[in-house]
Amino acid sequence: MPDNPYIVLQTERFECHHGPDRNKAKKVKAQNAQQSDHSAYQKKRFHIQTTKKLNCPATIIAKEMIFFTDFKDCISKYKKEQLSRVIRSSLTDTDIKLAMTRHIFISLPQGERNGHQNHLYGEAAEVSIPVDKRIIGKIEEYVGEGLVSSSCLRPLLEQFVRHEIFAGEKCANWTNRRFFPSQRDISNFVYAAKLKGLKAKYDQENLMAHVDEWQKDRPEDKFLFSGSDVNTEDTGDSTGFFFLYQSTWQQRLLNLYGNEICLLDATYRTTKYSIPLFFLCVKTNVDYSVVAVFACQYENSSTITKALNQIKEWNPNWNPKYFMVDNCEAEIKAIITCFPAPDCQPFICDFHREQAWSRWLKAIKHGLNQNVDDVLLILRRVARAQTTAHFDEAISNLKEGYFWKTHKEFRDWMNNTWLKSVKGMKFFSLKLKVFRMLYMWAWLYRKDRLLVKINTNNGVERQNRTLKYDFLAKYTDRTLTGMLTTVIKRFLPDQYRKYLDVNIKASAFYKQYNQHIPAFLHNRPKEMDKGNIKVRHQLVCTTNNIINGKYVPGRHEKNKLIPYDFVIGAYHQRGGHWDLLIVEPSKGKVVFLNPLGASPNQKRTVLLNWRKYIGQMLLLHPENGYKNWTLEVPDHSKQLDGSSCGIFCLLFAEKYLAGQSLLGITQEEVNNKRVMIAQTLMMFEGHMVGCCPCCGFRTNADEEQLIQCKICKNLFHRKTHCVGEALATGTSNEDFVCEIDRTVEKK
Description:
Elements: E1 6-15, H1 24-34, E2 59-68, H2 77-92, E3 100-107, H3 133-144, H4 150-165, H5 183-197, H6 203-217, E4 222-226, E5 242-246, H7 248-257, E6 261-267, E7 277-283, E8 288-296, H8 301-314, E9 322-325, H9 329-338, E10 345-348, H10 350-362, H11 372-384, H12 388-399, H13 402-406, H14 408-418, E11 421-423, E12 426-427, E13 430-431, E14 434-436, H15 458-471, H16 480-505, E15 527-530, E16 533-538, H17 540-547, E17 566-572, E18 578-584, E19 589-593, H18 600-620, E20 630-632, H19 645-657, H20 667-683, E21 706-708, E22 715-717, H21 720-723, H22 725-729, H23 739-746
Parallel strand pairs: 6-9, 9-10, 16-17, 19-20
Antiparallel strand pairs: 1-2, 2-3, 4-5, 5-8, 6-7, 7-8, 11-14, 12-13, 15-16, 17-18, 18-19, 21-22
Helix pairs in contact: 3-4, 3-5, 4-5, 8-9, 11-12
């Protein structure tokens, strides 16, 4: 130790964690304070081993000291006091600079086992060593990012210890609890980190604090939050707890895709409270996307109306024509209140309708549980009738049938639930004296009205399942705050990322398109998911090569049939005629539909060449196994002209996937389909720049004659198949109006 005057800056005393209990008096005081007349009935844990404090004397003492080297220490007390006054005055005088040195002295325990007594020592003691604070901090960091599974955290923490704490050094033994905590330890620290992250004691107050934080981090996103109060649902004076959220990208998708049809549905059991979580969805060009989320205490019409009105206020241009809901009176009433008919019309989802029918019929108390399939067959004919004649016939068969006449309970249930009437309600553009509930679930009343083919809410149901099983399944925080944090920070961004990925990968700037693909098919995803049915759209060139027996698979080509329920491809014959090929891989069935009628030779050729293609794929993928593929040509309507083969193929595909009959296609239905296709293509006019809207091929004013529509200003080829013979041979451009604009003007 230097022989100079010094100052002790700080002293630290480090005792063995098995040392004396310094908080014993506080523990006794707290224990006495908890005792009362009824303390014997209070629930408390019984500890077999009460404390790990075993009075170990091992102690480390560390002192930080500064020595003044300009002075020498002295012996007498008087001289020490004089020297002390000189040093103090020198320290306060800025003109005087003292020479100082800083030293840290550490006193280590001596003796056998380094002074440790009364407890285990060596490897056996590693079990009880406290966990390193750096590891606890890392756990808190992971919990803040939403990673709360101890089984997932353990390997991450081991990597942290080996590559950061012991980087380039010999790592500690894996039995050392300080650096390798057990799974139970990690779970305890995760729980402590969750409690530390709470901004308030009660869940509602905690959520309010999080909403304030989210609003600061996302100023462009929309939030609406109101807490619960003492009013009950019966009084109608309060909507109780209410939370509504919509991000900027959700607003963009709602305005882009939400003016045709929107889907609304609730999911339950996402938290420890009985609070439903509502998803407002739209059908995009890729899949279904959630465009607004709200949770509410009371699932009544006033609460849902409040949410829809607020979304309307945030999105002034949102005016949906249709809504798809389940048979929920609160949802239907809210939609009618926010979007009065004829501007918007609600439809009941086919899936929930079938589910409600099956559950009622299977109930033993209703007496029809032995005839479920027979009754469902009759009801489905009513629901799926496509023409007025078929619909009237189905209603007549229902009311004149055995079950209607002999089962009064069934008759009352249908009349009071599914066939009941509501006075004074509008349906589309009609002001009806009596509105019937079947207008919302019968296909006849929604046929040819929707540009987007949707009959179920399965798209929303799939979003609900994704949230529950992919995001909330392993998340043990069942509070409102935890659930909504997962939705806002993980689930919704993940859904938008998928939407962007599929669109970007379908872009011509991501990869160049095959030269045989028409321009109007560029920049569109080729796969879609219809509810619970996975459908693959096969390229025309691929289908042609397979049916013509010219397809040669690559050495490493994957089997593109296995993941799908249906594979659909259009076959282009010589001469410009279109046929349809539908494959059901799970059944080993090929369906071939020629709008003019398939000849026996054509059927035989299609089946033989398809089996040839399957044989080639089996050589590459023998693990998929052999199937006895069969060809089926169901009865279908036939075209009566020379230009509707493509329209018939599209109608065949839609009706076959929907399980409908392929007979009874009228010329009116074909014409309506043409208009719908034109309107759909015009929705993608951004992808048709520089192309003729009729044929889809590029327009080049330097090489060919063009004509411009005076309304939409689009350029068409001055050819017979694009604008007609009269305009193709003429020279004037002033009076040309394209077919799409003429159709819109007539309507």
